[in-house]
Amino acid sequence: MMTIDEFINRIDVANERFPYECEEALEKATKTMQKELKNATPDSGKEHKHKLNKSWKHDMEGHSGDTFKGVIWNTAPHYHLVERGHAKVAPSGRVFGHQPGTHFKDKTVAAKKPDIVQKMHTDLYEKLSDKF
């Protein structure tokens, strides 16, 4: 029986031989990342439509193991302003400052990605360890 480190080194073989199981593991990891992003999303404290933390969506793209990927996006119309920042503009049109972005998406992905990838490898190893 192979160890998990050997399995991770042969993950491309697992992807070729068991694409359905790999796609399931990737979709589970994508959902986990979406939940982490939702938890890390800042809240304005006001009730309104298009709340940032309720606007996260995900989908799976591709048709085979090599091209299959998980995609996560936010549908709130003001997401890019909170994430990247924006100019402060007076009602007269005069620019009087800059509101820096929070960059919460980048920070969350950088912090959580290693754990989620490791969990995905572990789950896939548990599913496929008896098939190798």
Give a quick summary of the entry:
It is built from five helices and four strands, in the order H-H-H-E-E-H-E-E-H. It is an alpha+beta fold and 132 residues long. Helix 3 runs antiparallel to helix 5.
Characteristics:
5 helices; two-stranded antiparallel ribbon; 17% strand; alpha+beta; single chain; HK97-gp10_tail; HK97-gp10 family putative phage morphogenesis protein
The percentage helix is 40-55%
Shape: elongated
SS field, number of helical segments: 5
The share of residues in extended strands comes to 15-25%
Average pLDDT for all residues: 89
Rg calc: 20 Å
**Beta strands, count:** 4
Looking across the biggest beta sheet, what order are the strands in?
A: 1-2
Compressed to H and E, one letter per element, the order equals HHHEEHEEH
How would a crystallographer describe the biggest sheet?
2 strands, antiparallel
In whole angstroms, the N-to-C terminal distance is: 8 Å
The secondary-structure class comes to alpha+beta
Total separate domains = 1
Protein name: HK97-gp10 family putative phage morphogenesis protein
Pfam families: HK97-gp10_like
